[in-house]
Amino acid sequence: MALTGFCIFLTIRKKKAFYLAIPFVALFAFLIIQIAMVPAPFFETVKFIFSLR
Hints:
The chain crosses the membrane at residues 18-43. It comes from Rossellomorea marisflavi. Keywords: Membrane, Transmembrane, Transmembrane helix. This is Membrane protein. By secondary structure, the protein is mainly alpha-helical. The protein has helices spanning 2-14, 22-36, 42-51. It is elongated. It has one domain. The relative contact order is 0.10. The two termini are 29 Å apart. The longest helix is centred in the middle third of the chain and has 15 residues, at 22-36. 72% of the residues lie in helices and 0% in strands. The protein contains three helices and no strands.
């Protein structure tokens, strides 16, 4: 929440829209780190996650 608010503040202050992409990049990086922390092989974990219904 703080990161998003800070990025919105920067976007308004600096008038550069690419600051709005930072929260999405951070969320994607968090997802990759969490998947990498699973003790199973990386691609098997990804296949398992996407095979859930």
